[in-house]
Amino acid sequence: MTSLLHVSDPHFGTERPEVVEALLRLATQLQPERVILSGDITQRARRGQFDAARAFVDALPAPALVIPGNHDIPLFNLWARAFAPYAGFRRAFGAGLEVEWSTPQWLVIALNTTRWWRHKDGEVSAAQRRRVAQRLQQAQPGQVRVVVTHQPMLAIREDDRRNLLHGHAVVAPALVNAGADLLLGGHIHLPYVRSLRGAYPQLAREAYVVQADGGLASRAWRRAQFGQRASPRGRRVVRDRALGLLGRGGMLRAARSSGARAVALAVALEEAMRHVPMTACPCRAILRAQSSRWC
């Protein structure tokens, strides 16, 4: 079995060191093949924040696949936002803003959905959509096909619909019908796993949205303390909200529509906060694939 660890919205610059250390311990325990960072790596795209994020990535036990989020573009430096919006990100993580990673078990395609002229909204261009759909169609039969964006393609709360990726009604069906099994995202700091079929009845096959929480930042801890998105019961509340009807073990098993093999999707919202207050909850999505029919 191989696994991926999905982390989103760490917002370095507002991180709590004890939570960062807990997450590093969790990653070391899990030994994922890759770590996916789906944007908002920093709070305000400042050099020191990118340096802290780079140090975190260097401390991980596996290579990271990193894409920018809207917070990774300068907000107040208008010249840099217009003419060099990704300079800080590129200095920390390299020139590429999009990442592809392929093994016999996985095909991961991570897209840059940010635009310097948008405050926080994201989009997938027609060119991106066509390119990714074509690549998905070229995937090997045994691969779990994963597409990563920063902004989500499905919302479970009405007030989060305004945060959906622009063009999601076209993009999500196009990618799923081309072969995508999982659509990973962040941005709204709310963890959940949902089938896409309820929102997109035109889908020709089953696929799932996997959203990761942003739990390293001090503001996430304040939300937990004051009940804005989590109750004082902390980890248990957020875990149960994310798992929904998936069951106490957090295991979701979904057969590939092609029948070639089954996709084993394990969503485990781990207790990375075991050494810090119960009211703080950095939830992470852990994705596993194996060659046998079920996990």
Characterise this structure.
This protein is α/β, with parallel strands linked by helices. Helix content is 27%, strand content 19%. It has helices at 17-30, 47-59, 78-83, 87-93, 126-137, 168-178, 218-226, 235-243, and strands at 2-7, 34-38, 64-67, 99-102, 106-110, 144-148, 182-185, 192-195, 208-211, 251-255, 262-266, 285-289. Helix 2 (47-59) packs parallel to helix 4 and helix 5 packs parallel to helix 6. The chain starts with a strand and ends in a 6-residue tail after the last strand.
How would you describe this structure in keywords?
295 residues, Purple Acid Phosphatase, chain A, domain 2, 6-stranded mixed beta sheet, globular
Secondary-structure topology with pairs:
Blueprint: E1 2-7, H1 17-30, E2 34-38, H2 47-59, E3 64-67, H3 78-83, H4 87-93, E4 99-102, E5 106-110, H5 126-137, E6 144-148, H6 168-178, E7 182-185, E8 192-195, E9 208-211, H7 218-226, H8 235-243, E10 251-255, E11 262-266, E12 285-289
Parallel strand pairs: 1-2, 2-3, 5-6, 6-7, 7-9
Antiparallel strand pairs: 1-12, 4-5, 8-9, 10-11
Helix pairs in contact: 2-4, 5-6
